[in-house]
């Protein structure tokens, strides 16, 4: 039962909880002498380690699961273990070796006996060939259609996602956007979060394309919450900061909820230099909620001139524009110009927000 719960947690991208479940299941299987069950669970542990970025240890676990021989008696289990090993190699940046393993996995499966395992292997193999420069988009669409006709929605949508990524890699941006729009919403509805996290989280440019393809703000939030579970989410946030900086506050919020402390720190580094009131609030919230060490990375006052800081300090004291003009011996239009520049640099639209940023920065 713990293994089943672990698989559900893995599919939903809850990697910490999945690992706990799998470790519990492995102890139980070994305690009861269930070699095949232990092999299955160890394979799942390896896949989860890979999802957390520990490819070497993950590959070791998957290979140990195969080395025991218990999985070899079931062609589908053997094929899945080979596919998992290949997938970790591909995500580690070794598609050539991954291709050979996917081919070996496909050779062990009887399509008539297990269409799911066969089509899953085919989708993984065709996608990897695409990463190596081959054009397998049409064949991926055929796999998607065959899986859909057989009611195998996970493989159907996986092949669609792979095809969309392949379109993006080959410069077919419009086709990529259409493909992502068609498959992502359904994958989230069905709980296929892990696949989205791993395939988009490692491709920041495609992740940004996917975010831009979302029509509703809620959908953007759902996708960011998923991507924040990836061990390199900060790479995605760097792309967001460069291409769609208005999404940076939502990205920081997602990282605060789902990323590790180290990765959250890298996310905050990635948004350094951006200026907006919402982002400042999100960064402050990250430090408060996660109790991170150190001061805020973004000093909202760092871009202000000496005179603008003087004006802002007087604003915080409750001075009116005419009072500031008198105290600083400058004209009223000059004060208004300084106030305008302060609002622009701080990314705010009114005095209350500007003063709040000032108070937060000086610790009052």
CATH class of the domain at 1-73: Mainly Alpha
What name does the CATH topology of the domain at 1-73 carry? Answer: Serine Threonine Protein Phosphatase 5, Tetratricopeptide repeat
Per CATH, which architecture of the domain at 1-73? Alpha Horseshoe
Distance between the termini: 54 Å
Q: Could you state the order of secondary-structure elements as H and E?
A: HHHHHHHHHHHHHHHHHHHHH
Backbone CA Rg: 26 Å
Question: How would you characterize the overall build of this protein?
Answer:
Among the domains are: 1-73, Serine Threonine Protein Phosphatase 5, Tetratricopeptide repeat; 232-298, no CATH class; 306-362, Arc Repressor Mutant, subunit A. Helices cover 76% and strands 0% of the residues. It has 21 helices and no strands.
Features of the shown structure:
364 residues; Serine Threonine Protein Phosphatase 5, Tetratricopeptide repeat; Arc Repressor Mutant, subunit A; 76% helix
Write the layout of secondary structure elements.
Layout (H helix, E strand, L loop, with lengths): L1 H10 L3 H17 L3 H17 L3 H13 L7 H18 L2 H13 L7 H17 L5 H13 L3 H17 L3 H18 L2 H9 L2 H10 L3 H11 L5 H11 L4 H11 L2 H10 L6 H14 L15 H11 L4 H8 L3 H15 L4 H12 L2
């Amino acid at each position: 039962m713990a293994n089943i719960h672990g698989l559900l947690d893995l599919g939903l991208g809850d990697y910490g909880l999945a690992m706990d479940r799998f470790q519990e299941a492995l102890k139980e299987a070994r305690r009861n002498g269930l070699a095949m069950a232990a092999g299955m669970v160890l394979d799942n542990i390896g896949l989860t380690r890979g999802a957390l970025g520990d490819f070497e240890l993950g590959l070791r676990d998957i290979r140990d699961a195969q080395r025991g021989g218990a999985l070899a008696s079931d062609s589908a289990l053997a094929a899945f273990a080979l596919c998992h090993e290949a997938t970790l190699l591909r995500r580690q940046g070794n598609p050539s070796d991954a291709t050979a393993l996917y081919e070996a996995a496909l050779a062990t499966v009887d399509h008539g006996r297990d269409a799911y395992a066969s089509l899953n292997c085919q989708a993984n193999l065709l996608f990897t060939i695409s990463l190596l420069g081959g054009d397998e988009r049409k064949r991926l669409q055929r796999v998607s259609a065959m899986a859909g006709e057989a009611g195998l929605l996970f493989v159907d949508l996986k092949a669609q996602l792979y095809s969309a990524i392949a379109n993006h890699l080959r410069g077919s941006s419009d086709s990529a956007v259409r493909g992502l729009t068609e498959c992502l919403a359904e994958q989230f509805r069905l709980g296929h979060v892990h696949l989205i996290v791993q395939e988009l989280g490692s491709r920041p440019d495609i992740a940004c394309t996917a975010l831009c393809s979302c029509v509703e703000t809620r959908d953007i939030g759902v996708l960011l919450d998923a991507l924040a579970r990836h061990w390199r989410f900060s790479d995605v946030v760097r792309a967001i900061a460069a291409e769609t900086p208005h999404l940076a506050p939502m990205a920081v919020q997602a990282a605060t909820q789902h990323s590790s402390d180290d990765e959250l720190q890298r996310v905050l580094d990635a948004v350094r230099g951006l200026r907006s009131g919402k982002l400042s609030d999100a960064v402050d919230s990250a430090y408060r909620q996660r109790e991170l060490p150190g001061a805020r990375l973004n000093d909202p006052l760092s871009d202000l001139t000496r005179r603008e800081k003087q004006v802002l300090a007087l604003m915080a004291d409750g001075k009116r524009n005419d009072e500031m003009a008198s105290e600083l011996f400058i004209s009223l239009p000059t004060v208004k110009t300084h106030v305008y520049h302060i609002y622009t640099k701080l990314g705010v639209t009114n005095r209350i927000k500007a003063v709040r940023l000032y108070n937060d920065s000086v610790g009052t």
